[in-house]
Amino acid sequence: MSLSLYNTLTRKKEEFQPVHPPQVGVYLCGPTVYSEAHLGNARGPVVFDVLTRYLRHLQYQVRYVRNITDVGHLESDADTGEDKMEKAARAARIEPMQVAQHFTNRYRQHMLSLGCLPPDIEPQASGHIIEQIQVIEEIIGNGLAYEVNGSVYFDVPKYDEEGKRYGKLSNRSIEDQMANSRAGLEGQSEKRSPLDFALWKKASPEHIMRWPSPWGEGFPGWHLECSAMSRKYLGDLSDIHGGGLDLMFPHHECEIAQSQGSHSHTDEARFWVHNNMITVNGTKMSKSLGNFVLLGDMFKGPTGPLAFGYSPMVVRFFLLQAHYRSPVDVSDDALQAARKGYRKLMNGLRLLDRLTADSFSSDVIRDRTVAPLAEGRQPDTAAGDAELRKLVADVFVGLNDDLNTARAIASLFNLLRKFNTLAATTATMATVSSAALTEAVDAYRAVVSDILGLQDEPRANAEELLKLTLEFYTEAKAEKAYDKVDTIRAALKSQGIVIKDTKAGVEWAYSEE
């Protein structure tokens, strides 16, 4: 079964076929770095991290691009209000680029904590002004944009008249959009149509972030950066472009219009992939609604609607236990259930070590070979092998079916139950061959660790464990149990820690050897 993905553009699942196999270009719309990332900001990166990992598992050569927005994202989608970066900078009385750098660093730290591999390229909007100006000039040259008082707007009605159909990604007709648009907002008088959107905005005298352009000093519109950077690093037509469902309109809709309006004349990406929202009590998690949970606070806890803190790997599992196109409602009950599921998979990884170490001990070999051979026949493992291989195949059925991690995880639990049964006795172990067991063990480890990106987290506090160990050492020394004393000393030394017996008591230090 080959990989299929749900394409928002066609509204159906399609078999994934790269534009230029085996190369695959993936673009994820990243964060606007004016504040701390919240849980909702993490779902897209986790989903696309798994997608990228799985594509590489399938032997594709992936170039994964995730952008950083540090200019041009105004408070309103109607091209009005302050730039979010400048507003944050004014509040903190620092430079906008200080705000951008600080929250970019924080975002990267959180993504690494969640097990997300760094993107191959992470371009920033402010570093690609030249490319964005070039795209604007191409669109103007094709008659689909116009300049007014130093600002440039995309002409949506004219674009639609040419048969391009603005709204095809979000399945909206231009007539409905016109009926629902609101005229008379700040700056709207410049536009020929309320549907037109900014490609370049003239900077007001107080605007800090500004660049020279053929139309005067200003800054690019929010939607423009992704069209320019995607084309620069992935070509006119990439394989997969996506982000949160809330970006489908207007952001991604405008991207398609910009790409078609420039020289490329393509939909920018073959597949448009959107993950659903995180909700709190059924309402979309949003900073504007004040119901968000910051990732840093969530890892420590308690915060917002959560009475406890949750480790990054538990949060990652929580996000993956639902299909990416389904909403996920955050609550302590849901996260505690996710923690149990995550720990069950981690216990499975530890079981694999015991299975591979003990599976073919002398007792098992004797049960499998010596006794059957005495009766003149070989052990029959065909049925057991077939069952085990079907359990493995079911895991990949889920992954291939639109990256259904929920189904894949359920199949992993079924496979884990089989492992537990096999590990129970040598008799059950003898029902499968070494080849089938090795295949299953390798598949479980690959899916859990390499594809889903779930890693074991230490749950013990190192300081508390060291304190407890020193107490055992002190007791052993008082009881003159010198064999235990030597054992504890040696064990700690192997970890780079030396015990010092002083007049004040037992102390420890890092080994300098």
Automatic annotation (TrEMBL):
Annotated positions binding ATP: K287
UniProt-recorded Gene Ontology molecular function terms: cysteine-tRNA ligase activity
Keywords assigned: Aminoacyl-tRNA synthetase, ATP-binding, Cytoplasm, Ligase, Metal-binding, Nucleotide-binding, Protein biosynthesis, Zinc
Subunit structure: Monomer.
Signal peptide: none
Motif ('KMSKS' region): 284-288
Motif ('HIGH' region): 31-41
Catalysed reaction, written as an equation: tRNA(Cys) + L-cysteine + ATP = L-cysteinyl-tRNA(Cys) + AMP + diphosphate
Cofactor: binding comment: Binds 1 zinc ion per subunit.
Annotated Zn(2+) binding sites: C29, C226, H251, E255
Gene this chain is encoded by: cysS
EC number: 6.1.1.16
Domain Cysteinyl-tRNA synthetase class Ia DALR: 394-466
Protein name: Cysteine--tRNA ligase
Keyword flag Lipid metabolism: no
Listed PANTHER family: CYSTEINE--TRNA LIGASE, CYTOPLASMIC (PTHR10890:SF3), CYSTEINYL-TRNA SYNTHETASE (PTHR10890)
Gene3D superfamilies per the UniProt record, alphabetical: Cysteine-tRNA ligase, C-terminal anti-codon recognition domain, HUPs
Localisation: Cytoplasm
Species of provenance: Hymenobacter negativus
Family per similarity comment: Belongs to the class-I aminoacyl-tRNA synthetase family.
Alphabetized SMART domains for the sequence: DALR_2
Cofactor: Zn(2+)
